[in-house]
Amino acid sequence: MRTIIALALTFGAANPALAASGPFFSMANTNFVVWLAFLLFVGILLLVKVPSMLGGQLDNRAKGIQSELDEARALREEAQTVLASYERKHKEVQEQADRIVAAARDDASAAADQAKADLETSIARRLAAAEDQITSAKDAAVKDVRDQAITIAIAAADQVIAKQMTATEANKLIDAAITDVDAKLH
């Protein structure tokens, strides 16, 4: 079919030009010579089977392009599968990160509450210890004041008794104390 179309186009395009002189079928006419050369060229191309070779090369090229398209389509589908997988993994990782952040917030809040409770307990213990120290210091101060008052009272009583007592009364008291101690010890 291609051969017939090529021959029809060749004969249709080979009209004699106005510049040629003489009868058309003579070797002196340049148009006839060019027309014969063209027919010879086309005949050689057909004899060597150039159109079938060109067709075969075009078919091979078409097959190569089709295989590249098929490979590109397969690669695209694989890339879409991988992309979907990565998007799914990204979503899972994002959800896991959100859970970790929420857990960290909860842990931090619980730790803050525990620290606050521990601080309140520590402050209460320190206040109780301070109150105990204050009470102990107050009791020690009262005891010191009493002891000092007793010491002063004894000293004052000693002076009063010493001034009012005579030597014979003192000797009687000493003898009575010795007898009392002797009775209590034996």
Automatic annotation (TrEMBL):
Main location (coarse class): membrane
Keyword Transmembrane helix: yes
Coiled coil: 62-103
Annotated transmembrane regions: 29-48
Topological type in the membrane: Single-pass membrane protein
Cleaved signal peptide residues: 1-19
Keywords per UniProt: ATP synthesis, Cell membrane, CF(0), Coiled coil, Hydrogen ion transport, Ion transport, Membrane, Signal, Transmembrane, Transmembrane helix, Transport
Top-level taxon: Bacteria
Subcellular locations according to the entry: Cell membrane; Endomembrane system
Assembly with partners or alone: F-type ATPases have 2 components, F(1) - the catalytic core - and F(0) - the membrane proton channel. F(1) has five subunits: alpha(3), beta(3), gamma(1), delta(1), epsilon(1). F(0) has three main subunits: a(1), b(2) and c(10-14). The alpha and beta chains form an alternating ring which encloses part of the gamma chain. F(1) is attached to F(0) by a central stalk formed by the gamma and epsilon chains, while a peripheral stalk is formed by the delta and b chains.
NCBIfam families: PRK13455.1
Biological function: Component of the F(0) channel, it forms part of the peripheral stalk, linking F(1) to F(0). The b'-subunit is a diverged and duplicated form of b found in plants and photosynthetic bacteria.
Family: Belongs to the ATPase B chain family.
PANTHER family reported in the protein's UniProt record: ATP SYNTHASE SUBUNIT B, ATP SYNTHASE SUBUNIT B', CHLOROPLASTIC
Name of the protein in question: ATP synthase subunit b
Species, as recorded: Parasedimentitalea maritima
